[in-house]
Design a protein that fits this description.
Layout: E1 2-3, E2 10-11, H1 18-23, H2 26-40, E3 44-48, E4 56-60, E5 72-76
Antiparallel strand pairs: 1-2, 3-4, 3-5
């Protein structure tokens, strides 16, 4: 279930398009994180969110604040 924007009414996850499902996947977040890590040459974290339309978020590891560390799925580091 997901909530439509501006509403508290849940919307079935089945209503997501195939493209949206692909974009929201962990695999896509990993792909994006790898590209960002390689381009910036800095550590990048993949965080899990509570928002169904963006269940994963890619952030620079240095920008992850203490309360968000529990949401980290994994971290990529260039050695």
């Amino acid at each position: 279930m997901r909530r439509s924007k501006g509403s508290t009414m849940p919307v079935p996850s089945e209503s997501l398009s195939r493209l949206r499902t692909q974009l929201c996947s962990r695999e896509n977040a990993d792909r994006v994180a790898t590209r960002v890590c390689e381009e910036t040459m800095s550590a990048v974290s993949v965080l899990r969110t509570d928002f169904p339309l963006q269940p994963f978020r890619v952030m620079a590891s240095r920008d992850v604040a203490a309360p968000m560390t529990a949401m980290i799925e994994h971290e990529l580091v260039i050695l």
